[in-house]
Design brief:
The complex is a heterodimer of chains A (116) and B (107). With 116 residues, chain A is mainly beta. Chain A is 0% helix and 51% strand. In chain A, strands 2, 4, 5, 6, 9, 10 and 11 form a 7-stranded mixed beta sheet that branches. In chain A, a hairpin with a 3-residue loop joins strand 9 and strand 10. Chain A is globular and about 35 Å long. With 107 residues, chain B is an all-beta fold. The chains are: A mainly beta (116), B mainly beta (107). The interface between A and B is medium-sized, with 22 and 23 residues.
Chain lengths: 116, 107
């Protein structure tokens, strides 16, 4: 199993920014593709973004393109999601995940609540 | 974008029942499909990848089948711990998309 710990959620006003973090432990982080998935209250799962192990390749959902930026620091085993220009519809639990081939979430963090 | 349509939205079943959930893609996705289980307040758990490959540690009563546009998740004999919501997700192309979910509850 891949332990993942999300943090950084909170309550913000529309238009404000927030940065989510996810720290991984116990494995060679740089070889794992990673990503973020969110779940609005009472709703289903929505993929947000993925990033390759090297950090060179990134992918975004249309709903967050241009507002959110995924990044990683392999030296610290950390994944980030910088969220700018937040909207009410971004309110959700955000979960980081180890993404096999940047497409399939194998292991998941516990999630961070973001309320806009 | 590829749309994923799950059916039924919910199913009521008893312990020992065989449960089948279907997922249809709006265009062909080969075998690039995953199934997840989610219990209330918990993170999802990967059950099946590549349409029919069982993730390590997942009980063999779970199975997946299909290719192209039509896929199926089957629970051969429902156990108490299987009451949950199940999601399919296409892993064929970006943006990645999930089905709307199927809730399995007690009959």
């Amino acid at each position: 199993e891949v332990p993942l710990l999300d943090s950084g959620g909170g309550l913000v006003q529309p238009g404000e920014s927030l940065r989510l973090s996810c720290v991984a432990s116990g494995f060679t982080f740089s070889v794992y593709d990673m990503g973020w998935v969110r779940q609005a209250p009472g709703k289903g799962l929505e993929w947000v973004s993925s990033i390759s192990g090297s950090g060179l390749n990134t992918y975004y959902a249309d709903s967050v393109m241009g507002r959110f930026t995924i990044s990683r620091d392999n030296s610290r085993n950390m994944l980030f999601l910088q969220m700018n220009s937040l909207r009410a519809e971004d309110t959700a639990v955000y979960l980081c995940a180890d993404m096999a081939a940047v497409t399939t979430a194998v292991y998941w963090g516990q999630g961070s609540q973001v309320t806009v | 974008d590829i749309q994923m349509t799950q059916s039924p939205p919910s199913v009521s079943a008893s312990i020992g029942d065989r449960v089948t959930i279907t997922c249809r893609a709006s265009q062909g996705i080969g075998i690039w499909l995953a199934w997840y289980q989610q219990k209330p307040g918990k993170a999802p758990k990967l059950l099946i990848y590549s349409a029919s490959s069982l993730q390590n540690g997942v009980p063999v009563r779970f199975s997946g089948s299909g290719s192209g546009t039509d896929f199926t998740l089957t629970i051969s004999s429902l156990q108490p711990e299987d009451f949950a919501t199940y999601y399919c997700q296409q892993a064929h192309s970006f943006p990645l998309t999930f089905g709307g979910g199927t809730r399995v509850d007690v009959k």
